[in-house]
Amino acid sequence: MINFHSCFVCEKTSADFILFWTYIYTRRLHVSFQRLKALEALHHIADLGNLKIQETYLPAFLDAIVDSSENIRLTARNILKLAKLPDLKLVNKCVDGVLKSLEMYPQDEPAILSALFHFGQNHTKFLVSMVKRFCEKLETATGNKSEFNSRQVSASLMLIISAPLSDKQSITSIPPLAFSYSLAMLGKFSCGLDDMMDQDTLLAYLSHCAILSASSGTEFNKGDIFFHAYRHSNEDLSGNPVLLRNKDIPAESKHMGSKAEVENRNQALKSVNHIVLKIKAAWLLSQSGCSKEAFRALRACKQELQTANSFISNGALEFMCQYVHVIELLAQVWPHFEYSRHTSTCKSVELELLMEEVEIKLMEIRCRITGLSTEVSLEMELVIFGCLLRLYKFENCCRLSCKKKLASTVSQLELHHEQQCTKPSDFLTETKKSLQEIGSNGNINCCRLLDLIKKYNCFSPEQFTLSGDLQCISAELEVPGNGPYSPISFVAGLPVAIPCEIMLLNVPRDTRLWLRIFRSDETCQFVYLDQNLYSGDERKKRFMFSAVTYMTPRALVFTLRVSIGMECLFEDICDRERRYGPKYPVAYLSKEREVHISSVSRT
């Protein structure tokens, strides 16, 4: 029996051996074991860099790619990873053979994707031709869900996105949509590339490539700070958890009893950081026009947060949930800014409602989450982004107040960076520069506004430390014994007292709380909660409070809705002429409770 591995490896010998292997493979007279041994010898030659596959031998190799033996297919793919074909014709034939194998053996998809990734890296000089070949398929995929999810498209994408890692190919030759679509197939791709990089690294790589491909066209190289960070696990940008500096670790964490608890906490932090990267991917997808995929990714983030590890504080989880919600709203807003500035009245109303909801959510984050450090810059940049969107889309409507809020937020964020000794983002620097150029009375022109909007980056990993100091201010409100069949009695025209059982969590002593009582006809009344009711130092405070309302209509029965809110004293908007109720905007801490009230019968 021939010992295939004993062949003397040189160019002539390897060429003769390929002829011999082609002969024994095409004759089909030998058992699978011998064919496998022949392939393993070829792999050994390829591993030493001496394998040259010519067109004459390619059919036999492609037969091995689609062979019924799993081991033969595996060895053939390993050879493919090392192969270097001399011309585009052979490259296309080889790719066609691999795609045929994928259709015949869908269970091999992860291994085939891995082989294509390596194959693409070895043939970057043919990248432009490969991109042209598959662009039509990618364009078709935009409107066809089944086509978008097909194995053919995923294989094509894997081949295309492999090239930038080689350091030889300009990333601008690849359309940004290729990276955006790849983000939607992250799970599938990470399974295929698990021998090269983890899912966090792949996600970071695709996100970064999408940004570079759509903007500067900078040559991608392994010295790039972003990619470099993912190769060094001790960096904050890495897919590993952003571990807190010792001074940031809460006292209780320093006294954790077991190593297992520390490990669980670190694992929980890593999972949250993974969600942060997914949020970035979703934002890139929405900007690329893949709204459905973006919303699907954001829904997945919400589901992951709902099952997050208990070692992540409630404050950190609440912050992340609110942040995902804001990005989800912005993803709905974004299509309004892709085309003309002027939209129909119906679209304008829809956009206005979305923008108002974004602003309310941002106010709630700032008001209800205490202990924010680096996350402050992220929240305030979102406020600045919202102001720029308003100035661009709504023209003269509320322009003065919006510009005032923009300038104020820029100043506050600049001061925050000075206090934290951190570097402001390019987005903040450019926005400040634009405000300085126009002065106090001028307006930022539309082109400049659009440039600033496009410069905004909703994500920077170092903005998420998610320390244990994050706490969420919340409240619970109950009306004991009240319901549709046990209403509170009242006399029409006279005040009525509503007995409220209130629980406050993490509410500071200097907070100004209000009870909001709302009637179905849009009538609203605010009742102030005296600070003496919740002046203790404990995190959780419970007390009873009777709220007197004068909103008793001449009706037999009616329903009120009651909730608790806190004034956001940092907001610039202040209604000082208002005699009763809060003078600043209110962020609500509890769910609304229905209060059923019935008139006293006269018998």
From TrEMBL:
GO-annotated biological processes: intercellular transport
Chain ranges of the Integrator complex subunit 4/Protein SIEL C-terminal Ig-like domain: 477-599
Keywords: Nucleus
Main location: nucleus
Taxonomy, superkingdom: Eukaryota
SUPFAM superfamilies (UniProt xref): ARM repeat
Subcellular location: Nucleus
GO cellular component terms, semicolon-separated: endosome; nucleus
PANTHER family membership: INTEGRATOR COMPLEX SUBUNIT 4
This protein's name: Protein SIEL
Organism from which the protein derives: Noccaea caerulescens
